[in-house]
Amino acid sequence: MRKIMLLAAVLALATTACRIETNAAIDINADQSGSLAIEIGFDEAAATALGAAGLPTSGDALAAGAGLDEAEGAEVTTENRGDMEFVVITVPLDDVTQAGGALSQAANSPLSTLDIEFTDDSVAVTASGSLNEAFSDMGGTEGIEQMLPPDQAGSLAEAFTSNVRITFPGSIVEHNADSVDGTTLTWNVPFNGAVDIQAESLLSGGGADDGGGFPIWVLVLIVVVVIGAVAFFVLRGRSPAPAAAGGAAAPTGDTTPPPPPAE
After folding, report:
1. How does DSSP assign 44-99, residue by residue?
2. Taking the alpha carbons of 170, 36, 25, 95 in that order, is the dihedral positive or negative?
3. What pLDDT sits at residue 14?
4. What's the Cα-to-Cα distance from 138 to each of 6, 61, 79, 132, rounded to whole Å?
5. Would you say 163 and 21 are in contact if contact means Cβ atoms under 8 Å apart?
6. What does the alpha-carbon distance between residue 35 and residue 28 come to, in Å, rounded to a whole number?
7. CA angle 127, 129, 131 (to 5 degrees)
8. What is the 3-state secondary structure (H, E, C) of 148-187?
9. pTM value surpassing 0.85
């Protein structure tokens, strides 16, 4: 991703309207398999500047620049998202807990640590990093900004964005993500700051998102309805008999008349 960072500097010199986005995406499956993807996207203005700077635009070249072109099973695809075109380099993983090692092969990764831990019924992810660490060999993000004219020192942060996106199995029970879409969590990596990732999901057990069994609220509703119905019929069975014709109450209990008073 170093070439992409250099491109961002060129784009910042040309215009602040250019946009470049890089993402690290991790898909986690309940059977502990998964995938890692590096996404590199740019809008039309960025693509024009990219070509003018003589930097690569093809998926294979960008995969080589990301350091994942030789990863086993790596697949390079392109897709349009709004006004941006993305090159996506996806690496399948038989054991997604090894994603940290695969990510370390990616040049200038925004994550310096990544730990994925499975238990019998859950999976937890912790990670940390920053773009400053990712480009430490170039003086960090501050060093890169110093390459720009003073009046454009802040334009690079506007042109360049980076995210970490993780899709979990089951249902999310805890997270500190910036945004949520179903079981996909996204963390924004600030240009001049750090990202700290913490999240956990249940592999099964009735979360509304995973379709495994009834959600708890449905079971509670069923119990409440059953209890209400039983109470209704019990109370109805104990209610007094209807009044006799003419408005007089129906006799209840012992109907023997009392003895006459003694003389």
Report:
1. HHHHHHHHHTT---SHHHHHHHHT-TTSTT-EEEEEEETTEEEEEEEEEESSGGGH
2. positive
3. 44
4. 10, 21, 30, 9
5. yes
6. 7
7. 150
8. CCHHHCCHHHHHEEEEEEEECCCEEEEECCCEEECCEEEE
9. no
DSSP per position, 222-252: HHHHHHHHHHHHHHHHHSPPPPPGGGPPPP-
> Token digits for 116?
């994925």
Hunting for tokens 């038989």 — which residue is that?
A: 94
* SS3 (DSSP) at 2: helix
3-state secondary structure of 145: helix
CA dihedral for 144, 146, 151, 154, sign (positive or negative): positive
Task: Report residue 216 as tokens.
Answer: 């708890």
Six token digits for residue 210: 């995973």
CB crowding 152-183: b at 16 or more within 10 Å, else e: beebbbebbbbbbbbbbbbbbeebebeeeeeb
Task: Report d(CA 189, CA 42) in Å as an integer.
Answer: 17
Query: What's phi and psi for 156, nearest 5 deg?
Result: -65, -40
pLDDT in tens, 165-218: 999 999 999 999 999 999 999 999 987 788 999 999 999 854 434 344 444 444
